[in-house]
């Protein structure tokens, strides 16, 4: 509330002295800002709303961190643990169509499953497979905007069926894939 009061009065303030990682939702919001398609007065409204969304996501992350009894630094030590989790994320993204199991991913990254799960939550504010699902569905949205057929998108991203893809897409974005253009 102190931060919100300062912003409302037009004063500058920092949310925290420490930088937090960029969550998947923040990354997606930044991508939306950089790839804005609307023009004119709607563009300004769109950009303002995305900036507010980004600020809200950041504030929520700081609130969650402040409320948490176990800080990310206690879960994931800087150095090997953090590097292993970032490596696991990159490996997961590279193998998104046929993802490894949690134990395989932990083995490949050189970290135990507990640290992998807890570290993913701390660094990316998401579970391992929640992050993968968000990544795949964002890729799907981009492919659909590029007019790739729904069946091809579902196949390319490793969904077992078009129906499963449709349901996951609708749950994430609130619209069926056929409405994305």
UniProtKB/TrEMBL annotation:
Domain of life assignment: Bacteria
Pfam families: HTH_18 (PF12833)
Keyword Cell wall biogenesis/degradation annotated: no
Keywords: DNA-binding, Transcription, Transcription regulation
Transmembrane domains' residue ranges: none
SUPFAM superfamilies in the record: Homeodomain-like
Occurrences of domain HTH araC/xylS-type (ranges): 86-181
UniProt-recorded name of the protein: Helix-turn-helix transcriptional regulator
Organism expressing this protein natively: Niastella soli
């Amino acid at each position: 509330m102190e931060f919100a009061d300062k912003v409302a009065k037009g004063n500058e303030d920092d949310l925290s002295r420490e930088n937090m990682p960029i969550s998947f939702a923040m990354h997606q919001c930044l991508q939306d800002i950089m790839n804005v398609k609307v023009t004119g007065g709607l563009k300004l409204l769109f950009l303002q709303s995305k900036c507010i969304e980004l600020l809200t996501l950041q504030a929520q992350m700081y609130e969650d961190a402040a409320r948490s009894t176990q800080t990310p630094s206690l879960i994931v030590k800087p150095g090997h643990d953090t590097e292993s989790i970032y490596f696991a994320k990159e490996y997961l993204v590279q193998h998104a169509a046929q993802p490894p199991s949690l134990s395989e991913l932990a083995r490949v990254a050189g970290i135990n499953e507990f640290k992998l799960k807890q570290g993913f939550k701390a660094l990316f504010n998401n579970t391992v497979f929640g992050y993968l699902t968000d990544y795949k569905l964002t890729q799907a949205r981009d492919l659909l905007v590029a007019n790739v057929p729904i069946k091809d998108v579902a196949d390319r991203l490793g969904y077992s069926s078009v129906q499963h893809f449709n349901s996951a897409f609708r749950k994430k974005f609130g619209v069926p894939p056929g409405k994305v253009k």
